[in-house]
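hey m, so remember when u said the tokens were messed up on ur end? i reran from scratch. heres the input so u can diff it against urs
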Amino acid sequence: MRQFHRHTLLSALALGTVGLVPLSAMAQAAPVMGAPCCMAPAPVTPTTLNFTVSADQKKVPDMATMGAGVVTTAKTAKAAMEDNARKMSAAFVALKAAGIADKDMQTSGVQLSPQYDYTNGTRPRIVGYQASNRVTLKLRKIDQIGAVMDALVAQGINEIDGPNFGIENPEAMLDQARTEAMATAMRRAELYAKAAGMRVKRIVSINESGGYTPPQPMPMMMARAAMADSAAPTPVAAGEVSYSIQISLQVELEK
């Protein structure tokens, strides 16, 4: 019994040893992952061209915005507000008489504040009140802007700033500028590509920015109290307004 058991165990060990050989051989024969033969080729960096082009459109303005206001002072807050209300109400009547529609008039601010006396090194004391009322106007008749200003001053308006000229619907001008800018950009891309012995393969990206360039700014106009009896209206020059478009273009080139 003991001899038979020993013989069987030795036989099993022998078989187990033989069975290990192929596993070891397989481990040695397995390919190593990440070896140079298995790496993908590095991607080729494309040749790109980047530049910025702008185009603008100019036109005589067809509208303007303007701010107008009245500032009043009095010993009491009530008196300051009442005086202010009378003058601003008269100004609104004058604006409607000049053909300004209700939708083109918007109150932009009403303020009331105390006025203090700081003299003699004493504690500040209230000596009166100042009231102000401002309105923003859209003026669609450019040739009447000066006359509107004078009519406002005649009714007590003592602060005017503007006008700021513009185009009511500038989208058509902007589209024309976009078309011109893009045509210039593509023409320039083809020029560079040809000079480099290549051609434009595709547009990679287009980015747009733009702006509005007003005419030469007019100085703020305060009330012309000393000239209220002048027969000539306040002169106003509209000039031209300019809308510009700037595009940044990136294209890919190929041989």
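this time it looks ok to me. The two ends are 87 Å apart (CA to CA). if urs says something different then somethings off w ur setup not the seq
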